[in-house]
Amino acid sequence: MPDKIIPLIEAKKTSGKYVKLDPKGFFVIELDRQQIRVEYYSNVYRKKRIASGKLEKVFTGKKADALSDTIANHVPGLRPEHYCYLGREFQKAESALKNNKKYIQDGC
């Protein structure tokens, strides 16, 4: 039997206009007193559209991997790309914290 041909796929960033909002909610990430603070909001809908959010949980930590693992355990069912986005943002926030730099959360 011949070997299966494995495709080589070049990585490309998804344009913001193609990003789907997560029906589970959203996160606000900031640096707060020598730690990373992450607020999780569930979506509040009006007329079947996301109108705002309700604060559900607050996470704090200094390490991107610990925050990622903790949020995956406490906020299950997010879209996979949402977890990826959070991991990137936590890495940026951790780097800013270590280097005493300003951190600004990117949009989707």
Number of helices: 2
Nearest-angstrom radius of gyration? 17 Å
What kind of sheet is the major sheet? Answer: 3 strands, antiparallel
Average pLDDT metric:
91
Helix content: 25-40%
Q: Strand share of the residues?
A: 25-35%
Distance between the termini: 44 Å
Unreliable runs, pLDDT <50, ≥5 residues? Answer: none
**Tally of structural domains:** 1
Query: Which geometry do the CA atoms define?
Result: globular
If strands are numbered along the chain, what order do they take across the biggest sheet? Answer: 1-2-3
**Estimated structural class:** alpha+beta
N-to-C SSE series?
A: EEEHH
What's the total count of β strands? 3
Question: Would you mind describing this structure in some detail?
Answer:
This protein has 108 residues and is α+β, with helices and mostly antiparallel strands. The chain has one domain. The chain contains two helices and three strands; from the N terminus they run βββαα. The chain has helices at residues 64-74, 80-98; strands at residues 26-31, 36-46, 49-61. Strands 1-2-3 form a three-stranded antiparallel beta sheet. The model has no long low-confidence stretch (mean pLDDT 91).
